[in-house]
Structure formats: C-alpha cells, structure tokens
Amino acid sequence: MDITNNLVRSDWVTKVYSAVRVEGRRALALILDGFLLSLLVLWLSSLLGVEQVTSDTLPTPGMTGVFSFNSSRNLEWYWLVLVTISYFTAQEALFGVTLGKRVLGLRVVMKDGSRITWQAALIRNLLRPIDAFPYIYLVGAIAMFNSPLRQRIGDRVAYTLVVPVEAVAAQVSLSLTQKCTRMGVFTLGVALLFVATLVMSYFVQPTRIIEGLHNTRQGPFANAGNVPAYGVRELSRSGDTTTYEVTYHQEQPARNCTFEQQLVWHNFSGWQPSGGGGGVCTP
Predict the structure, then answer these.
(1) Interatomic CA distance for residues 113 and 100, integer angstroms
(2) pLDDT band at 263 (very low <50, low <70, confident <90, very high)
(3) What pLDDT shows up at residue 13?
(4) What φ, ψ does residue 232 adopt, rounded to 5°?
(5) Torsion from C-alpha of 144, 149, 155, 156, nearest 10 degrees
(6) So what's the pLDDT on residue 77?
(7) Residue 22 burial (CB < 10 Å; 0-12/13-18/19+)?
(8) Closest residue by Cα to residue 278 from 245, 230, 237, 241
(9) What's the CA angle centered on 170, arms 167 and 174, to 5 degrees?
(10) How far apart are CA 250 and CA 62, in angstroms?
C-alpha cells in the first residue's frame, strides 16, 4: 500500500517523512494560537456575550445570610466555534500559517508541498472541533500519531501537511505583490470585524445585558426570585445612554412588575448597566 497517498514528486516524498516530525512545535504553536484566540474571544464576549452564573447558587427571596456567586460574560458555543474556525482558516488560507505557527517556524501545505488552497484550509478547520474532541485535541493527537505523515483528521480529509517552513520555502514563496495583496485583504478583514462587532454591540448588546441581569438576578430582577420569562422594550436612546422597560410576573408573591433599566455606552467595552429609573409591582 502506498502510505504516501500518491505524493507526486519523488524529491518531496524523500524528505517529507523527516519534515513532518514536528509534534512538539505544533503543540507549542497551538498553545500560542489558543492564547491569542482567547484574547479575541474575551474581547468579543465583553461586547456581545451574555452574563451567566458559573458557580455557586443564586439566593431566592426569603433566604438569609451572605451569598456569593461567580459569573462571566460568554458567547454562545456556536459563536465560539465560528470564531475559532475563522481565526485558523483566514490565516492559513492567506499565509499558510497562523501567528503561532509563524513563531514556531511551521507551515501548512498541500501533500505535494504546494501552497494550501482556500478549500483545503476551510475543510481542515471545519474538522478542527472533531480533532479537539473531547478536550486538548485528544482525537487529533491519536489520529496524528497513527499517521506516517503526522496528519490529524482535518489534514487527512483536506490532504494537507504541517512541516517546517524551510522544507517548503522555495515552492510556497510569494512575490512582493502577492504578499502585499494578501496582507491588505487580511488587514481589511480585521478592520471590518472590528467595525462590525462595535455596530452589532451598539444595536444588539442592550437586550443581552438585560438577559445577563436576569440570569444573575441583578438590576430589575434583584428581588424577583425565579422569573421564567420577561418582556423588554426600548423607551429612549440618546447618544451614549439608552433606557429599557423590563416587565415580568413574579411568582412569590404573585404580582406584575415593571422597571426601567438604564445603560451607558463605554468605548471598546460597549453597554454597561448604570442603575435603574425605578419600578413598581402590582398584585
């Protein structure tokens, strides 16, 4: 059986087996990319995430004593998957490397040693969640160490390899025009992401902030106990300040409540609660 899977150049076949033995460098590159990706996710979460209780239990009306809980503002899982796939796909398709791989001197190429294509980069990273399952890339590590070409599942399906950059420097080099064009596309993409995130945050985040207050029983929900559902509508917006009306039915004691919640816009961190305008509950 041809374990090279029809690699087309004999000179490349000769050196590829030693070139792919870079497991340690791949692991370090992944750690570095994971750190950079976590910073991006942290920023996106601060603008678009929803506050969730992460440990301990919220107090209920009638409970006495001192209570504490931990919470964090997080994106939904599907946004995390989309951001992760986009982070790796865009860099590998444009440059053949991520920031982590660049620092560690690695390159993603096709199995014949040519530059990775957009299609291959997308396929390779669409399968990344499977390789990462259930944690710390366990499935991908098992697949890689059982492959003579050190390919994880995404590499096998996309027909790609990860090798030291010096092993493929000649065949994957770009002209100055190509480098400038790709860097321009990448810079434009980053700028559009930044602007789109701020725009989405300005128009979408207020209701998600109120959802976070509901999840953590703060603001208009501070003394409400368990509130399965609530209504929210914008009353006014002026520059960096907006006010929402929050209505809900409280179960114990049974009554209908209406509150106003004010939010203030902060540059780069988005909308933040800034006290309420009072409220009333009626039986």
Answers:
(1) 20
(2) very high
(3) 57
(4) -145, 140
(5) -100
(6) 92
(7) buried
(8) 245
(9) 120
(10) 14
Task: Enter the tokens of residue 11.
Answer: 């000179």
The amino acid at residue 60 is T
d(CA 184, CA 8) in angstroms, rounded, equals 33
Task: State both tokens at 222.
Answer: 């501070």
Nearest in space to 249 (alpha carbons), one of 241, 257, 237:
257
pLDDT tens column, 43-86: 999 899 999 888 766 666 555 555 677 888 899 999 999 999 99
| Cβ neighbours of residue 111 closer than 8 Å, sequence gap 6 or more | 5, 7, 149, 159, 160, 161
Q: Residues 6 or more apart from 210 whose CB is under 8 A from it?
A: 219, 220, 232, 244, 246, 261
Return the residue matching tokens 């540059």. Answer: 267
pLDDT, average across residues 123-128 = 97
Strand partners, 259: 246, 279
Q: Structure tokens of 197?
A: 């995130």
User: How far apart (Å, rounded) are the C-alpha atoms in residues 146 and 161?
Assistant: 14
> What would the mean pLDDT of 14-36 be, rounded to a whole number?
86
Strands across the sheet containing 255-266: 230-238, 241-250, 255-266, 270-282
Q: Is the pLDDT of residue 277 over 70?
A: no
Mean pLDDT of 130-158: 93
User: What is the pLDDT, as a whole number, of residue 7?
Assistant: 44
Which residue has tokens 């988005």?
A: 270
Q: 237 pairs with which residues across the strands?
A: 242
